[in-house]
Design brief:
Blueprint (H helix, E strand, L loop, with lengths): L4 H9 L3 H8 L3 E3 L2 E4 L11 E4 L4 E4 L5 E2 L1 H9 L3 H11 L11 H28 L5 H9 L4 H6 L3 E3 L5 H8 L4 H7 L2 E3 L6 E3 L4 E7 L5 E8 L7 E3 L12 E2 L1 H4 L6 E5 L2 H9 L5 E4 L6 H8 L4 E4 L5 H16 L3 E4 L8 H18 L2 E2 H10 L7 H16 L4 H15 L3 H34 L7 H17 L1 H7 L11 H15 L6 H6 L4 H12 L7 H24 L5 H16 L8
Parallel strand pairs: 13-14, 13-15, 15-16
Antiparallel strand pairs: 1-2, 2-3, 3-4, 4-5, 6-9, 7-8, 9-10, 10-11, 12-14, 16-17
The structure holds zinc ion (ZN).
The site of zinc ion (ZN) has 8 residues, from loops.
């Protein structure tokens, strides 16, 4: 789905970047630019700059860069389309229905078939549960204490112990085999003859997206088969990392807080106990995609994983993901190693609500987990534990919060608060240095991905392309000469090929190249950053002859790199001869820009 470039540009111009970023964080004016503490990396002195003139931001510390859309995408964890919506809303611009290409319409149709098929399958499984064939399964479900109204609400069903009953049912309903295979509900037999169901002899839990559509199933085996839980595979409509079980209900509770659990049954039994703000990750570790989805609805998370070693480790892995995505995180562990479902069954919902109140901050939880490894009566252990605790505390950004925990650790170990503080500030300095190193590595990695096919002078050719594009954007005389020597398709990275064709196009139409507008055409933060970099650094040449020399060097480097790329795939003498000829031509090339 796409909006027209004109509209995207109008929305951008109606949202002044200084105002939008100024609403988000304090900015101080210095000359033509505004500066602030970078929201994308930890720093004490401002290296994040916002240009009112060019309408983009650029961080000299971590390299973050982009226009107002990039900023919204990065701070709200959303995609380009959502950023367009947010900023249209901010400017009071009404959005039309987005335009769809032919391919998009076709894909939408395919997706719709899969949604319909899942609905049919869901109904089929539900009916099976309530017929004779599902008697045992229903008996089991009732035995687990799931009440009939909840069974219905969650659409729990049963896949009979036959190998192809759903397949036959879907055939009857008029679905074709190719769509069935795409849905993951039906699988081709090993001998390539005939088809069978993915799920059989399983209690079926429909997985429903936030729009209320069934997108997959989780199946719990009846009896002792393996695996105990089986999920739908990833399909056109089902992405395990972007969906959370039960979020379709939890999102309506309008609570700031959500309880995050590991399994279907935990989720359902907490819901049944009256706590509707609960959801579960779908058999995968909680990751950044999950966090971004959740962030749309809540700010606070209570992690309620099993209290065994596996559950504790899963919680310890989920904490940094949640914290990095800006959640306030508390952790709750059910006593006596029970899982939440068991606890509620044995103790009732009143006791469970008391437990919830006692959820501890993730810092306390992490420190507690460390403490278990040490005997605090042993002086050596005491020191080791304090160092581990300091590491955790160094990650806290609030000084007040940190002081509270420092006091706790100090009381417990008898090590003075000031010594612990010293240890923390030592670690914080290391963390800062590591961050800068990491940011640098990350930047290099992005470049290298962009230029994976380019064998030599990788970084040089990126700079050459940026410098050339900057000159073509700002100097129409240069453009009119240079366009005869290099075409947009001759730039060596995809992003810069596309940027070049946009810039050439604007110049041909007699328009003015406006940096933030060029960025509009790119929809990922990484691409937006690369394009912003074209304009972020201004190249100053005192004399035209210096500019001429630099341009020639840049164009030659780009052309040679492209030729090197081609050389790698040449396999006949004729082509080699041609390449040798072209090489000689490049060497001889000299483009005159000055009149002198
Ligand atoms: Zn930064």
């Amino acid at each position: 789905m796409r909006y027209s470039q004109d509209l995207i540009e109008e929305i951008r111009t109606q949202n002044d970047i200084v105002e939008v970023i100024g609403d988000f964080m304090p900015l101080t004016r210095k000359g033509g630019s505004y500066f602030g503490l970078c929201p994308f990396h930890n720093e004490n002195t401002p290296s994040f700059s916002v240009s009112a003139d060019k309408q983009f931001y650029y961080c000299f510390g971590c390299g973050a860069a982009g226009n107002v859309y990039s900023f919204v995408m990065q701070t709200k964890n959303c995609d380009f389309l959502e950023a367009v919506k947010i900023l249209a809303d901010r400017a009071g611009i009404l959005l039309p229905e987005p335009e769809q290409s032919k391919e998009e319409k076709e894909e939408e149709k395919r997706r719709q078939i899969l949604f319909d098929m899942h609905k049919v399958a869901g109904r089929y499984y539900y009916e099976c549960l309530h017929e004779n064939i599902g008697e045992k399964a229903l008996y089991y479900l009732n035995g687990r204490g799931v009440l009939p109204n909840i069974q219905k609400k969650f659409g729990i069903g049963f896949a009979p112990d036959l190998r192809d009953s759903l397949y036959k049912h879907l055939l009857e309903k008029g679905y074709n085999v190719s769509d069935m295979l795409k849905s993951g509900l039906v699988i081709e037999n090993k001998n390539s003859q005939g088809y069978h169901d993915r799920f059989f002899n399983r209690l079926m839990f429909p997985i429903i997206d936030v729009s209320g559509r069934i997108i997959g199933f989780g199946g719990r085996v009846m009896g002792s088969g393996e695996p105990k839980y089986l999920n739908s595979p990833e399909t056109m409509i089902f992405n395990k990392s972007r969906n959370l079980y039960g979020l379709n209900f939890a999102k309506n509770t309008r609570r700031r807080e959500i309880i995050l659990v590991e399994g279907y049954m935990d989720m359902i039994s907490i819901y049944q106990a009256g706590f509707h703000n609960v959801c579960a990750s779908l058999g995968t570790a909680f990751n950044n995609d999950h966090a971004r989805v959740l962030k749309k609805y809540v700010d606070d998370v209570i992690l309620l994983y099993d209290s065994d070693t596996a559950g504790t480790n899963a919680a310890l892995r989920a904490i940094p993901v949640l914290v990095d995505n800006g959640f306030n995180v508390k952790v709750l562990q059910v006593p006596d190693g029970k899982d939440p479902d068991e606890f509620i069954k044995h103790n009732g919902s009143m006791e469970f609500s008391k437990l919830l109140v006692n959820a501890v901050s993730h810092i306390s939880f992490q420190i507690e987990c460390k403490r278990k490894n040490y005997n605090l009566n042993n002086p050596e252990h005491k020191v080791k534990f304090t160092v581990e605790a300091a590491k955790i505390l160094a990650s806290l950004s609030s000084d007040i919060e940190r002081d509270v925990y420092i006091k706790e650790v100090s009381d417990e170990t008898g090590i003075s608060e000031s010594s612990i503080k010293k240890e923390i500030s030592k670690l914080a300095n290391i963390a800062q240095t590591n961050f800068v190193k990491e940011a640098e590595k990350k930047r290099k990695r992005i470049y290298n991905n962009q230029i994976s096919n380019i064998p030599v002078k990788a970084k040089g050719v990126m700079e050459a392309q940026r410098e050339l594009l900057a000159a073509l954007s700002s100097n129409i005389n240069v453009y009119n000469i240079v366009k005869n020597y290099i075409k947009p398709s001759q730039f060596v990275t995809d992003v810069y090929c596309k940027a070049a064709s946009i810039i050439y196009d604007i110049n041909e139409k007699g328009g003015r190249v406006f940096p933030a507008e060029i960025v509009n055409h790119f929809e990922s933060v990484e691409e937006q950053k690369l394009v912003t970099e074209i304009f972020a650094v201004t190249f100053n040449y005192d004399k035209e002859s210096e500019l001429e020399k630099a341009l020639n060097e840049n164009i030659k480097l780009i052309k040679r790199t492209l030729l090197d790329q081609r050389t790698a795939s040449v396999d006949n003498v004729e082509d080699i001869k041609k390449i040798v000829e072209e090489k000689i031509n490049i060497d001889k090339l000299y483009i005159k820009i000055t009149n002198g």
